[in-house]
Design brief:
The protein is mainly beta. The protein is about 0% helix and about 55% strand. It has one domain: 6 Propeller (Neuraminidase). It has a 6-stranded mixed β-sheet, with no helix packed on it. Strand 2 and strand 3 form a beta hairpin.
Length: about 300
């Protein structure tokens, strides 16, 4: 939906002194502990709303992601309908952005140089029809201090033609390793598309219909995503070169942006737990962590 009149996101950038690890700030009565963002361990949000890595407790977040030693945390604030994007790395706190809306998705590029977020401006679920929810998604370049604004400011091409409908929504950004290309979901007129975005040309090009919340594999060849069947989502994996599509072995409804644990395994939250499943379509779901959501891997 075109919401340019809503104005530019408030941005404040905070750079703190160098630290060996992220952390040691207070969260209410609980003290944040040091997080080793290159440990290779599972990072997730626990049932109390805190980020966890091994037995360490980090900041309060609703969504978290980690890559190349950079952590992004998307969380609510004390202000109604406001989210805060917090970015941390080995130097400490690097960035804070405030955004009107409630937290939905967050991602870090594999290089740790770009971060992305999605918030709900209205509604709280992607399952509704036209007009039942409104989202906005944005991207920030940490190296150059550049805010790319909302994806609504990019030009959308569907089947090779400009698409300028007023009801367009975007969500679920995932980055390529080149720091110039990304994928996301676009929705308009009752349809959804996987779109390929370019930061250089500020364009979004439709790639495939009925692909939501994409997640690019570490090797950059496949996308795990939500495939909608009626009012349910099933996890699938799309091969970008061949177009081959594989339904994963999770039979239940999943409303999450999946996360690759490695090139062969996809993780996701369902209910009150994090699960993993082979990306090949074989095997069966396996619970990784109870009382957890928003899985990520602390890749250095």
């Amino acid at each position: 939906m075109n919401r340019t009149w809503l104005g530019v996101v408030l941005v404040s950038v905070v750079v703190l002194a160098c630290a060996a690890f992220v952390g040691l700030r207070s969260v209410g009565a609980q003290r944040e502990e040091q997080l080793d963002l290159g440990s290779g361990a599972l990072v997730y949000v626990d049932s109390t709303g805190r980020v966890r890595e091994a037995e360490r407790g980090g900041p309060s977040c609703q969504r978290v992601d980690v890559a190349a030693g950079t952590l992004v945390c998307l969380r609510v604030t004390a202000v109604p309908m406001q989210s805060e994007l917090l970015v941390l790395d080995a130097r400490g706190e690097r960035l804070r952005l405030t955004e009107w809306g409630t937290p939905s998705r967050a991602r870090v590029a594999p290089t740790g140089r770009l971060v992305a977020w999605t918030v709900f401006r209205a509604g709280d679920s992607y399952i509704g029809g036209v007009g039942t929810f409104s989202t906005t998604a944005g991207i920030y370049d940490l190296v150059h201090g550049k805010h790319y604004g909302s994806l609504e400011d990019f030009a959308l091409l569907v089947d090779g033609r400009p698409h300028t409908a007023d009801d367009v929504n975007y969500w679920g950004v995932t980055f390529s390793r080149d720091d110039r290309t990304f994928y996301a979901t676009a929705a308009s007129e009752g349809k959804t598309w996987l779109v390929r975005g370019s930061l250089d040309t500020r364009t979004l090009t439709s790639w495939r219909e009925n692909v939501e919340c994409p997640s690019l594999s570490p090797d950059g060849t496949r996308i795990a995503y939500k495939f909608r069947i009626g009012d349910r989502w099933r996890l699938h994996v799309l091969d970008l070169a061949s177009g081959g599509d594989t339904a994963l072995a999770e039979p239940e409804h999943v409303d999450d942006q999946p996360q690759w644990l490695d090139d062969d395994t996809v993780a996701y939250a369902r209910g009150q737990a994090v699960y993993k499943v082979p990306a090949s379509g074989a095997g069966a779901p396996e619970m990784v962590r109870q009382g957890a959501s928003s899985p990520a891997v602390a890749r250095g």
